[in-house]
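User: Fold this, then the next.

Assistant: Folding the first:
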Amino acid sequence: MKDVILTSDRVIVLDQGLASTIHNKGYFGSFQDSRLELSFEEAAYLCEKKELPIYGRDGKKLNFKQFITYAEKKQRRFWTRYCVFRDMRSSGYILKTAFKYGGDFRVYKKGDYPGKAHAEWILYVSEENDSIKFSSFAAINRVAHSVKKRVLFGVVDNEDSVTYYEIKWVKI
């Protein structure tokens, strides 16, 4: 299908009707020219919900598992990031990438979305056995504080459940 294109780092929706429906339904993706570009996490979420057909370069429709296998080959930590993305989106939050802040996602408060408000949190995704150096932790907090966002860690356990930890500044 030529209306949904799978690239090495995103999924592009060319069909204007489908693109508008997807974007307007939950602020998925971003428009570049007249096409909707979805992150792999957004595409996987929509594919799992059966709201977006995804086709490989050979023109064959991919099921959810096939798409996940493809995405895992292309992006490091994809499944861990997807577990957090799915959990947050299912709870009503809008997520966008946060690479320029050094995080995984920007998270908007429920009811907010890009263009209406600024993201509330920078979300960092990790697995339960990961560790972080104090200097990295301090840097994460400095960046978030400088852009007026709070820090949120999404930690995925071995059963793919997510626990969240919010970091706040305290004045003593």
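Now the next one, as you asked:
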Amino acid sequence: MIPLRDVIPSRTTPYITVTIIGINAAAWLFELTLSDQQLYRLLTVFGVVPAAFAWPTLLTSMFLHGGWAHIIGNMLYLWIFGDNVEDRFGHARFLIFYLLAGTVAAFGQILMDPASQVPTIGASGAIAGVMGAYIVLYPHSRVLTLLPLIIVWEVVEVPAVFLLGFWFLLQLFNAGAIAVTAGTSAAQGGVAFMAHVAGFVFGLLAVFAFRRRREPRRWTDM
């Protein structure tokens, strides 16, 4: 299932969401200019490597990606769900929340396999936090989704609770399966599943501390 947009319009301009997408896009374009050797060096220095942990990488790793599908998928989910969460949090709170979600996600992956020398990169953990917050803030929302059938593609409205809940269960299942069968981090298979789980759970819980008690008024309100 490929989400296209949700049904809840944002009442404020999502400055932080757009800025984060812009920084990720700029970083990705820079990655494309590098040779394979230079790119490997970049990812090992600025990605989170559990066995050689460095605090600054908690931030830098959130803006690096490993492929077109990786960055396009992440930015699509951030665009769909980020504006509404930013709308309810406010710009400053949303930025702090986003960075904390990414940090918690990184530590989730580190704790799963502290001896790993594989760099963990990507905005997925932080965006998982945004998705966790969204499911609490907008439990009745629906998401316009592209559904691949056997021959044709159908556009349908899917409850956000189902779409995001199903996504979370997949991450949890894969993280658990890898931990049981291999005892190593999901990052070695290309996806940091535990980072997704940790980020999502953080979003579910932290939303209550970050959401504004009073929603912003529409400009048409009298």
